[in-house]
Backbone:
């Protein structure tokens, strides 16, 4: 019974992460490159707080490919798993607020 609760919570967490990335993808896809010519000035980094090869990583890679085509800028996917996602969250929190990093 306890295992089912843990599995359900994990599935819900992954689903919420995927929904968040899809919403972000739609937002970026709708950007007009001519209006936002000043952003981005450098490569965009997507921080995934899960291990490589999982559903969030695969979704982030698909998202990065779409963003790269829409923006004409390189988009990198970095996996920073560990400590319940706090390692990746700390990296994002301590990064420069230049708009080039998202989680």
Residues:
């Amino acid at each position: 019974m306890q295992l089912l609760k843990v599995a359900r919570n994990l599935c819900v967490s992954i689903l919420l992460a995927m929904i968040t990335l899809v919403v972000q993808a739609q937002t970026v896809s709708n950007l007009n490159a001519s209006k936002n010519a000043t952003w981005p000035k450098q490569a965009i980094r997507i921080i995934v707080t899960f291990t490589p090869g999982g559903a969030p990583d695969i979704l982030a890679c698909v998202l990065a490919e779409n963003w790269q085509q829409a923006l004409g800028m390189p988009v990198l996917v970095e996996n920073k798993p560990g400590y319940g996602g706090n390692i990746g969250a700390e990296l994002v929190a301590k990064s420069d607020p230049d708009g080039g990093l998202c989680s």
About this structure: The chain is about 50% helix and 10% strand.
